[in-house]
Amino acid sequence: MNNVGKILIVDDDKMNRLLLNTILSRMSYHVSEAFDGIDCLEKAVSLCPDLILMDVKMPGMDGLDVTRQLKKNDETKNIPVLIISAHDQLPERVRAVEAGAEDFLSKPVEQIILKAKVKSLLKIKEYNDNIHNYQKKLEKEVEKKTVSLKQALDDLQSASDKLRLYSMDTILRLSQAAEYRDMETGEHIQRIGYYIHAIGKALSLSDQEIETYQYASPMHDVGKIGIPDQILMKPGPLNESEWKIMKQHTIIGGKILSGSDSSILKTAEAIALTHHEKWNGCGYPYKLKGLDIPIAGRITAIADVFDALTSKRPYKKAFSVEKAFDIMAEERGKSFDPELMDAFFSIKKELAEIRNTHNLDYKAPLTLSELTFPQQSSGAYLP
User: Fold this and answer.
1) Which domains does the chain have, with CATH numbers?
2) pTM of the shown model
């Protein structure tokens, strides 16, 4: 907005307009005049004043009706209106406020009060304009970055079936960015996919569902990119504040993957958000319970926990496959969907073969008593 305020005086009385114009012009404001309501509505749009001084008693449309029309128009609704009336009773003031006016001034006009109110309303208008302009600038920046991110994510889905294997290779490599920071290997995210494929077959899911879950699952921990190294790579137990930050990786991952039209990336978003939810509602981040947890998140949780139990972590060594099965059996109906767990246990041999075939990070097993947990609560050994 210009430093010199623009003021529109609306009054059917020429002498009243001249008096107000003289006072305000001497204050170095740019002053325009309108002789009735219709003239005001037209000039409010064409001149874009910073303040309107509105008389009430005018032929045709009175000042309160004009004010209502101004406040209904998106182009003029943010222009402050100062009602000037010969009637100073409370009901008149209430009607002015109800019409949308920002302030009220009684006749005869006292110059000192007029000047103070005009200055005050112009400052408010300038402040509101600055906020509005800043919001528009932010909206444009957010829109620009959102479009760029959405385009980048959608490009992953645009590959043809002929290039699907190459796309999977790309996803695996991108997913490893988070896994390497967590001292994991590419074997971990590949095993997750193999486990999900095997569980999906045991559940008699369609090939399309299995493929979608398998392609989306490698990105389940992509949100760990946003977790500080001193927490993510801490060799000992996390304290309460650190654990609170660590749990944010689900929210971060969901935001990274949100907004895409790709079915795989939509599923990846759901997995990133819900793979730490538990069947009994004690998980995070939203404490979802039972079937409120998407099946993609429920299956990935089983695969992720099984692999975590049989893998070396900064705070533990690896359990044997047999011990992992025992631990997970205790969580049937607690952490995990009992139906999915039945399918999981029906293919124990296949799962063990997958683990032992892709076991670059597999270390000697240990007993439960040797393990130091990052969170001391029921089911705390589960990641």
Assistant:
1) 6-133 (3.40.50.2300), 159-370 (1.10.3210.10)
2) 0.52
